[in-house]
Structure formats: structure tokens, C-alpha cells
Write a structure and sequence with these properties.
This protein has 92 residues and is α+β, with helices and mostly antiparallel strands. It is 23% helix and 11% strand. The termini are far apart.
Length: 92
């Protein structure tokens, strides 16, 4: 059996458990409690993807401005009262 470069062989326990080798945990920045999504591809490969943690989401949204936007019955807003929203609406 040939082992691909960068791959590791792991063993499935009698209960179906596997341990992700430290090499991969470090490369994926995995910590205890992190969640992974597992997908089975059409060609039979298992794909593990790290889901964003609450701290990841906090970092992602930290710079998003928060302001109240009032939209009238015609779907219009006042750009002077909502400058960040207006800027966002006009980004390309």
C-alpha cells in the first residue's frame, strides 16, 4: 500500500472512533470542542471541514458597523442617518 505524501494512516476503533493526528489538528487549528462537518464525496472520499466557532464569528463580525436604518414605505432611507449602510449599499 502506497501512502501519499502528507497523509497519515489512522485506525477505526470498535466503536467507530478515530483520532485526528496532531499534524492535522495543528494544520487545521483544531481545539477541543471544535466542530467538524463530514461529507462523503461521490467517489467515496471523506471530507472533514472545520466549522467556524463562536470566537471565529466574533472576529468576523467585529468590524461590521452597527447602526439603525429606517426604510420608508417606498424602500428609501436617509444616507446621512445611516452612512455605513449607505456606503455598504454602494460598494461594488
Amino acid at each position: 500500500m502506497d501512502i501519499k505524501k502528507g497523509s497519515k494512516i489512522i485506525t477505526v476503533s470498535s466503536k467507530g472512533h478515530v483520532t485526528i493526528p496532531l499534524y492535522f489538528r495543528k494544520r487545521m487549528h483544531l481545539s477541543s470542542g471544535d466542530q467538524l462537518e463530514m461529507t462523503l464525496s461521490d467517489d467515496g472520499r471523506l471530507i472533514l471541514e472545520k466549522l467556524p466557532s463562536s470566537s471565529d464569528w466574533k472576529k468576523l463580525i467585529a468590524d461590521i458597523p452597527v447602526e439603525s436604518v429606517t426604510i420608508d414605505q417606498d424602500g428609501c432611507y436617509d444616507p446621512e442617518k445611516s452612512p455605513s449602510f449607505d456606503k455598504w449599499m454602494h460598494e461594488e
